[in-house]
Amino acid sequence: MIIENHKPIRIIGYPESSLTDGALQWFLLESKNPIEIITPETFLSLSNKDNYQYFVGFTLDMNLRKIVCEEIDNLNLDCVSYIHDSSVLFDTCKIGKGVFIGAFSVAVQHCEVENHCWIECYCLLPHHGKIGKGSIIHGGSLIAGRVTIGEYCTLNFKSSIINNVTVTDRVTLGAFSNITKDVTRPGRYVGSVARYVGE
After folding, report:
1. In principle, which of 30, 50, 96, 185 could form an S-S bond with 115, CB 3.0–4.6 Å?
2. Domains of the chain by range and CATH?
3. pTM
């Protein structure tokens, strides 16, 4: 299900990006509006930003992602969201704007997903937990219980975070890695149990 208004859609990203192209393909299936891909640089230079609705469709440069997301929110611009029909969201979930939730993902009771998050297929999101603004959760990742994930974090494929854990902003968790205690330092973490490996 796509959540949109009447304005033309601008996906902010790069044509060669798999995330940008993935968003485009899903939106084309359901949207009745014209859709165009524009680069982050083009978006930031637009003088008529109010004329469109947006989706942030790139992840490799998280600093630039943050600048774009903050610009959208500061100007209170319209955004497109996409929630796949096979995903399950409990009634008590709170989903922000510009969010993508892929096929067969589940967000259980009192889960909050903030603006501009990208949640891929087969992810489990935490009850009484939060996914911070602009964060990316790749396919098959599991977040169990009262977990708070900071802003602009990335959980790579089939990673996991266990109950009652808080993860600070700008943390990247490697594929097949898991976090079992609070993470207070931004940077990259890998392994089981995950350890800090640098910025």
Report:
1. 96
2. 2-80 (3.40.50.10190), 84-189 (2.160.10.10)
3. 0.94
Burial environment of residue 36 by CB neighbours within 10 A (0 to 12, 13 to 18, 19 or more): exposed
Task: Report how far Cα 37 is from the mean position of its chain's Cα atoms.
Answer: 18
CA–CA separation, 13 and 88 (whole Å) = 27
Contact 45, 17 (CB under 8 A): no
pLDDT over 90 (residue 38): yes
CA 178 – CA 108 distance, rounded (Å): 20
**Cα distance between residue 53 and residue 148, in whole Å:** 29
Task: Specify the pairing of strand 78-79 against strand 94-95.
Answer: unpaired
